[in-house]
């Protein structure tokens, strides 16, 4: 069971994780896709959202020996304001491999 992913050097502890392969529409090549759900507290909100604004990362999943350059294809959160003390939001993130 995958418990953590890394986006560049940032570690994110995940509640749910799934990986799959799909075909890139332009090239027809097989690419990787990672889907992760995780919780973000108000203490980590700024750090995590600032990270996600980068959009493209080196994606590492050590438990699966998986690494690729990926970009966000889908992202959602249960909260729009996690600045309230004690608040925790559910984040959903989907990353797809970028073909150079």
Written as H for each helix and E for each strand, in order along the chain, the element string is EEEEHEEE
Beta-strand fraction estimate: over 45%
Task: Give helix % range.
Answer: under 10%
> By helix and strand content, what is the structural category?
mainly beta
Taking Cα atoms only, what radius of gyration do you get, to the nearest Å? 14 Å
Number of helices, counting only DSSP H or I runs of 4 residues or more: 1
Number of strands: 7
Task: Give the oligomeric state.
Answer: single chain
In short:
The chain is mainly beta.
Structure description:
The chain is mainly beta and 100 residues long. The protein has 1 helix and 7 strands; from the N terminus they run ββββαβββ. The chain has one helix at residues 45-52, and strands at residues 4-7, 10-13, 16-23, 30-41, 56-61, 66-77, 88-97. It has a 7-stranded antiparallel sheet with strand order 2-1-5-6-7-4-3. A hairpin with a 2-residue loop joins β1 and β2 (10-13). The longest helix is centred in the middle third of the chain and has 8 residues, at 45-52. The relative contact order is 0.27.
Tags for this model:
100 residues, single chain, 1 helix, mainly beta, 7-stranded antiparallel beta sheet
């Amino acid at each position: 069971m995958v418990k953590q992913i890394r986006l560049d050097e940032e570690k994110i502890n995940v509640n749910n994780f799934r990986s799959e392969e799909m075909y890139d529409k332009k090239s027809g090549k097989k690419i990787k896709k990672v889907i992760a759900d995780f919780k973000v507290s108000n203490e980590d909100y700024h750090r995590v959202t600032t990270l996600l604004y980068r959009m493209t990362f080196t994606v590492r999943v050590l438990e699966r020996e998986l690494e690729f350059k990926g970009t966000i294809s889908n992202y959602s959160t249960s909260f729009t304001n996690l600045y309230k003390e004690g608040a925790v939001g559910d984040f959903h993130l989907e990353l797809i491999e970028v073909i150079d």
